[in-house]
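[Q] Does anyone have a clean structure-token version of this?
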Amino acid sequence: MTDNHEQVPSRQRKRFPDISSRAYEHPADRSALVALRKLSGFDTVFKALSALLPERSLRLLFLSDSVRVSDEQFAHLHDMLRDACYILDLKKVPAMYVTQDPRPNAMCIGLDEPIIVLTTGLVELLDEEEMRAVVGHEVGHALSGHSVYRTILLFLTSLALKVAWIPLGNVAIMAIVTALREWFRKSELSADRAGLLVGQDLRASMRGLMKIAGGNHLHEMNVDAFLKQAEEYEAGGDLRDSVLKILNVLPRSHPFTTVRAAELKLWAESRDYQRIMDGHYPRRHEDKDTSVTDSFRDSASHYAESVRTSKDPLMKLVGDIAGGAGDLGGKLRDKFMGNGAAPGGSTGTGSSGGRGQGEG
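[A] Here you go.
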């Protein structure tokens, strides 16, 4: 581990001294984490696992069976890492490893100190600017303190498989795993924003997400068409497809790639992002004075706006009911049974649009 930013490469990118992770954290990330901490039994499991998890073993495993990024090994990645820490003002540069795995992936794990791991599949897939956004993404996880919960999620997922034969034990573990996955999916949206703050190149971030979805075939892909998929995924189908979307995403640790791209583009075009780029953002030294009530208010406002603007059939129905548009039971019956046309004369039967996005 290194504690300084000596020999940080010269970049024409803005730096954000003392930036708080609150500046880029998605409201859904914060609210999901609060809900997770309130889950019955979570505190007990968290404390027990924090004491029992073999962190030293984890570090030794990567040290012995992966390549540690440094000035001598994967030097270009080491430059990116130090640059990302410099831009986000993360004082202690995390250790980073490259591990042999053809699947493109990256993660930030660790209880006492974060470790960033990149797979060879990802390193070989992305160009320099796309990789810079990924490294910034993982540094964002480190700055937000996400590595602790990610480590526990990995351990509990493995444990759930081992105790599947225990009648009640597995139910309790799976409840916590499900809540952790829900939070982690939201935390990915926050880390994508951190990656954009580091790379400061939206199209590079988009290209990286497209490659993760479709491989190294950029000449066959188009950013606008890719974002259209996200719109079709959200708006397509009827209530049955809305339910299927929820079921499809439950086992996943990451949101669907098109959804991540659409969320990131929306944020990049927002006033919030521009204010950060102009130097107006929450500072780390103010974190201790942050009001939990304000965080709840921001999250509630975000969800209310999401429901209001969503094109998803289920969310539109929730918005109608919340606005006093009528009887919930009758509307659900009509929608599921196919009685009654959707606004604008559409019957809302394009169900394949909602199911077209597979696990990837």
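[Q] Thanks! Anything notable?
[A] The longest strand covers residues 95-99.
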